[in-house]
Design goal:
The protein is built from 24 helices and 29 strands. The chain has 970 residues and is an alpha+beta fold. The strands form 6 sheets. A 6-stranded antiparallel sheet has the order 13-12-11-16-15-14. Strand 9 and strand 10 form a beta hairpin.
Length: 970
């Protein structure tokens, strides 16, 4: 009995049912495992392929966007260079255009204007003020060399400290169509790429960043949380990019990411910049669905095996067929046919597995289709915005640009009508500037709209968009529109968007359609961006027109200002003023009246655009009547834009002279000089015309310059009269001076004769010619001789000064040896230094060539200086030095002493006539102060120079130069 269970167990194990169950379970388990494995491999490959394709598209789109941004900045810089080519280099207009570029585009952080030699003329930024010492020589800089050859320059990305990376852009500055006058360089802050890469997130956990060939991270959505540089050489994936800018040969490959984790990565190369856009997705996140699939597959396998163990005996025949069908379906899907579905109809675990596979195929198909649709839609939007941006930036002809833009918008969004309205100069009305109609018969024909009286006016007033999905049934339309023009034209859809920039409203963009329509959020955002670009084009065109107008006005002011400053002929200034006003500002006629205060009438001084008969009819007017009289009486300008309907004209002009001249618009400006009205400037037009504020300011300035010219002419006449009177007075003074000099000369001559007799008689007495003298008599005669010679020298000095004043002193040139001059000086020294109370040193060059000069005056100069040295040196020594200076072709004389010296404040006045040191008034040092004055005058006459170096108590050193060969003017 005990062996019966064992035998039953052995029989069960050897039975067909057991083997079928074992084989069935084994085959089922194997089939399920193989199916799961194939599904896993297929799913993994599909995930990698889908991720690689998605990453490739995202990387390529991002790379194109980055390249477009950089190209846009280059276009902006080209536009700025085009505007800067009109005014002169380094001028205020270029400075203003540069500041406008920095203000309108925050991406530009710094701008510099260089001339053709590479010198920075202007340099400024939004955050730093540059001075003249900050301007540098950039002639050796790479950007200047490239741009000066007529090419645009784009540098590699670089950083400065902890700041964001930036690019250096440079373009040539053309002053003429073929000549390059300089270079415009700018720094572009790459912080603008932050938003681009912040938006480039895809799927779940995917992100993109920008690098260069050196591994520098230029832009990343996480910014400061990532390293600034990565090692590209250590990653085989980037070898082709680093070495030859090759595209990604293995997109979607896994490897180590920028954060150190395993990722699926793809890159797209921006060849023009040497950059690459890298797109990564963490491997763990990318394969998360596959791990979930594995877990679910394992649970499903256990469940199927458990159920199969119960029913395999009677279900084994039906069990194999569904498995084979499922395997066939999986194989088809594994080959990429996502349209195929498993045809297993059983409702067991195998059927459920087939359903799960079918659901997975549906999910993959829908995901792939939606991804392509979104990428295509986004690419279309970016392309549309790029087309509009390109149109806006390619020309400064605003009307042509606006017309192309409305045509593009109509084609892109399939509207029936697109209109652009812009404000007029007074910002009171909207003017139609561009229209494009699919059905021209629907055009309402409205060219001017008032602010607040229509849908466009309401948007212009509030600055907010208005969109009517169906204006035929929308009650808001009837409340806003006074004309119901769009409703009467049969339109259903109407959208009116504001065109504004930096908070300033410039106009509106109107969009209409015959059918009802709802604008998607993406379309509205795209249209809003296009409005911003339209506003930028309008602002740029307005700025360009302002620059042109201002340049013309400055040219007029410069011409008239030059005439005022260069000519004192008032008639010439008047003629140029009326001519320039008429031609530049565009008036049919201009004329100038000058007020005659004596007669109280206005007399015409110059005219342009009037016939001689017309000018003669109004050549003289009363100052108390008419438009001119009103301007002169009030001192304010008078503008009549519509003469025929202006209510002020009958009261101002009884004669109707302006009307008689057949003018439709006119204006009168008072001409003032020193706050006094001296005349009036008139301008007139034969058609009605509105005078803009800048035109009024220009004419007012010209009137002021005419007043300045009148005052200059008056002052010139007064100066001429005073100059003649001064000339006559000066001639009288010269005659008096000459008479005085002749009197002094005569008196000096008369004094010298008896004085020479006294000196001669004293010398004879002293020498014993009349008999022996005692000691007292010798001392007396010696004093008589010494003081007589001093007095004779004073008389000679006075005579010399008088001859200078009378202009009768001339040079007598001769060839003289320096040794002869020194010999005369030695004789003087022997006479003065008979008792040898001073040491005298002589330092004379032996090789001094002969001099061509006035030897007597040179002797007198040297003797005067030696005499002064002895006079002011009680004890010590005197040095006389003469040196040849061949490099300067002159001879240097020096007389130095160890005497009382000269104070610094006295050194400038000792060369004046009758100037003496304060010590000379004590009685120890006699003289009248003419010696040094004569020395200086002689040296001026002989083309020489003299200087003094001295300190009180330490002596003085006088040094003078004379040319080796004196050349006199013929």
């Amino acid at each position: 009995m005990t062996d019966q269970p064992d035998s039953r167990l052995a029989g069960w194990r050897g039975s067909i049912r057991y083997r079928l169950m074992a084989w069935g379970l084994g085959l089922l388990a194997g089939a399920l495992l193989v199916s799961a494995y194939i599904g896993s491999v297929y799913t993994r490959s599909q995930i990698r392929l889908a991720t690689a394709k998605l990453q490739t598209e995202v990387a390529s789109a991002t790379a194109r966007h980055v390249e477009t941004l950089v190209a846009h900045k280059l276009e902006r810089l080209h536009d700025a260079a085009l505007g800067m080519s009109i005014p002169p280099l380094g001028g205020d207009e270029q400075h203003l255009l540069g500041l406008l570029l920095l203000k309108n585009d925050p991406a530009f952080s710094e701008l510099a204007v260089l001339n053709a030699d590479g010198l920075e003329l202007l340099k400024f930024s939004e955050t730093k003020l540059y001075s003249g010492k900050d301007l540098q020589d950039q002639r050796n800089a790479a950007f200047f060399r490239e741009a000066s050859r007529g090419k645009q320059f784009v540098s590699a990305a670089s950083r400065s400290g902890n700041s964001a990376p930036f690019l250096t852009l440079a373009v040539p500055l053309k002053t003429e169509p073929v000549n390059r006058g300089g270079v415009v360089a700018a720094k572009v802050n790459l912080k603008l790429l932050h938003d681009t890469f912040s938006e480039r997130r895809f799927s779940h956990g995917g992100y993109a960043y920008l690098i260069d060939k050196s591994g520098n991270v230029i832009a990343h959505p996480d910014g400061p949380n990532v390293p600034r540089r990565i090692d590209l050489k250590g990653q085989a994936k980037f070898t082709g990019f680093v070495e030859r800018s090759a595209p990604d040969g293995n997109p979607g490959a896994d490897g180590q990411g920028i954060g150190g984790t395993q990722v699926l990565s793809t890159y797209a190369v921006i060849n023009e910049l040497g950059w690459a856009v890298v797109v990564e997705k963490p491997l763990e996140l990318a394969l998360a669905d596959l791990a979930k699939f594995h877990r679910n597959g394992a649970v499903l396998l256990i469940a199927i095996l458990a159920v199969a163990a119960l029913v395999i005996v009677w279900l084994s025949g039906k069990f194999t067929r569904p498995i084979q069908d499922l395997r066939a379906g999986v194989a088809i899907m594994a080959h990429g046919n996502l349209e195929h579905r498993a045809s297993v109809k059983s409702s067991d675990e195998i059927g459920q597995l087939a359903s799960e596979f079918n659901k997975m195929a549906d999910v993959l198909k829908n995901s792939y289709a939606n991804l392509e649709q979104r990428i295509e839609q986004r690419t279309g939007q970016v392309a549309a915005l790029y087309d509009v941006t390109k149109t806006v930036n390619q020309s400064l002809d605003l009307d042509r640009v606006l017309q192309q833009v409305v045509e593009q918008i109509t084609a892109i969004f399939h509207f029936d009508t697109t209109r652009i309205y812009l404000f007029d100069g007074e910002r009171e009305n909207l003017i139609s500037r561009a229209v494009f109609e699919i059905h021209p018969e629907s055009w309402t024909g409205i060219q001017r709209l008032g602010k607040g009286l229509s849908v466009a006016g309401h948007v212009a007033k509030t600055g907010e968009s208005l969109i009517f999905d169906d204006l035929q049934s929308d009650p808001r339309y009837a409340q806003i529109s006074a004309s119901n023009a769009s409703r009467d034209a049969g339109f259903h859809f109407l959208a009116m968007l504001p065109i504004k920039i930096h908070g300033k409203l410039l106009g509106t963009l109107g969009l209409s359609g015959k059918d009802k329509r709802i604008l998607a959020d993406e379309e509205l955002r795209l249209l809003t961006s296009m409005c911003e670009h339209i506003a930028l084009a309008v602002e740029k065109a307005n700025l360009f027109d302002q620059v042109i107008t201002r340049s013309r006005q400055l040219e007029v002011l410069n011409t008239i200002g030059a005439a005022v400053s260069q000519s004192l002929n008032l008639d010439e200034v008047h003629d140029q003023a009326v001519d320039k006003i008429a031609k530049t500002v565009g008036f049919d006629a201009a004329w100038i009246y000058q007020l005659d205060h004596a007669d109280g009438v206005l007399r015409m001084k110059a005219f342009h655009g009037l016939s001689d008969d017309m000018a003669a009819s109004v050549s003289t007017l009363s100052v108390h009547a008419g438009v001119s009289g009103q301007a002169i009486e009030t001192g304010e300008r008078l503008v009549l834009e519509d003469i025929q309907h202006d209510e002020r004209l009958p009261a101002l002009s009884e004669q109707g002279s302006v009307v008689a001249l057949e003018f439709a618009s006119a204006a009168a400006f008072p001409i003032m000089a020193k706050e006094k009205i001296i005349g009036a400037l008139h301008v007139a037009n034969r058609t009605k015309r509105h005078l803009a504020a800048d035109e009024i300011e220009l004419i007012q300035t010209i009137a002021g310059q005419i007043g300045v010219a009148s005052e200059n002419a008056k002052l010139f006449a007064e100066v001429s009269d005073k100059t003649k009177a001064l000339a006559q007075t000066n001639q009288e003074l010269l005659d008096a001076t000459r008479a005085k000099a002749e009197f002094i000369a005569a008196m000096s001559h008369e004094l010298r004769t008896p004085l020479n007799i006294v000196i001669g008689s004293s010398d004879l007495l002293h020498d014993g010619f009349f008999g022996e003298l005692n000691r007292g008599q010798l001392d007396a005669t010696e004093k008589i001789c010494r003081n007589s010679r001093v007095l004779l020298k004073m008389i000679n000095d006075v005579l010399t000064i008088s001859r200078f004043d009378a202009g009768r002193l001339t040079l007598e040139l001769a060839t003289v040896e320096v040794d002869d001059i020194i010999d005369q000086a030695r004789v003087l020294v022997e006479q003065i230094n008979r008792d040898n109370h001073l040491e005298v040193r002589w330092d004379i060059d032996a090789s001094i060539p002969p001099l061509v000069t006035d030897s007597l005056k040179l002797e007198e100069i040297l003797q005067n200086l030696i005499g002064n040295a002895f006079k002011f040196t009680p004890t010590g020594r005197i040095e006389v030095r003469v040196h040849h200076r061949p490099d300067q072709d002159r001879v240097e004389f020096t007389v130095a002493d160890t005497g009382i010296g000269i104070a610094a404040e006295d050194q400038g006045r000792i060369f004046n006539a009758f100037e003496q040191l304060k010590e000379a008034h004590t009685g120890h040092f006699n003289g009248v102060g003419l010696g040094l004055n004569i020395v200086r005058r002689y040296l001026d006459l002989m083309q020489g120079e003299i200087s003094v170096q001295s300190q009180p108590g330490q002596g003085a050193k006088f040094t003078f130069f004379v040319p080796r060969s004196l050349q006199l003017a013929s």
